[in-house]
Amino acid sequence: MSGNGLISSIRRLINTEERLRTSNPSPFDHLRLQMDDISGDGGILKEVVQPGEGSPVPQNASVLIHYSGFLEYSDQPFETTTNFKYPQMMKLGRDVTLVGLELGLLTMQKGEFSRFLFQPHYAYGDMGCPPFIPAAAVVLYEVQILDFFNSGQVDDFVALSPVGRLQEEQNIAPLSTLLEVVNTLRSFGNRFFNQSRYHNAKDRYKQAMTLLGSRESQSDAEKERIKTAVLPLYLNLSLTELRLDSPHKALKYGNKALEIDSANTKALFRCGQAYLELHEYESAQDCLITAQAKRPFDSDINNLLRKVAMSYKDSLDKQRDMYAKMFRDLRGPVKM
User: Fold this and answer.
1) Distance (Å) of CA 16 to CA 5, 33, 39, 42, 331
2) Core-most of 87, 227, 271, 315, by most CB within 10 Å?
């Protein structure tokens, strides 16, 4: 904060305290006394209710948040996301329309819950937003950041190689940068998956796969690091395809994972699930028995193995009944 900003803040604090002594203080007047000036001009005041951890939100990130906006003397928010089934995902620089809220989010950490007071020029302006926001309104926002993703880094990395051009700039970028971008895309995909948005999850996983597949590796060590990053993407894609009722594709990705790590129990389990959906019970049993040998007390593996055994038995019983009926039909009716 500049020297002039500090002097202005002190003067505003003195003026606020003077108003509290000489008049009836408003709710926002009380709040101002426990808030910090983060804009330097008094336009954005902040109170940290619950601290977060880690680095602050970066520019152009995508933030997963809950927020509520209040007018003074109002107990009910004029807007809120707390009643949504899933938290709001907002891209800074695109989805956040209030200048004050965008600047406030850039001061927050993962897990943080804070309150902000925005003067009109950082919120809805002198005109307000009728009929909900009156003219020149000071507004209070309560914001909780559940998570954020450095999507700005993803955007910058993808922009290095326009469609149709060789990806030279991506190849000369540090491998660590590529792996950070891939991890962000995978985290995006996991978030979509947990919200049952399986097509969106699949798109993020495949975008990460494309970036890894386009990397021209220069050393064995780099190739191994890329294979390590590819493996969880194959596993995620396999499970996503199962949720999308595409067992053939799920099996394809499961087998690709096994090509990297033939002893991977998750890959064996995914293949077992896919074979079960395809009614290939013997193959399902083979995969699951191999997985069970490595993790004999895993309840998911054991339960699925029992399910496969029961389905296999039911299938054999139906075949036996069908063949018995066919044999009776061939013999014809019994003559008396």
Assistant:
1) 16, 8, 18, 12, 102
2) 271
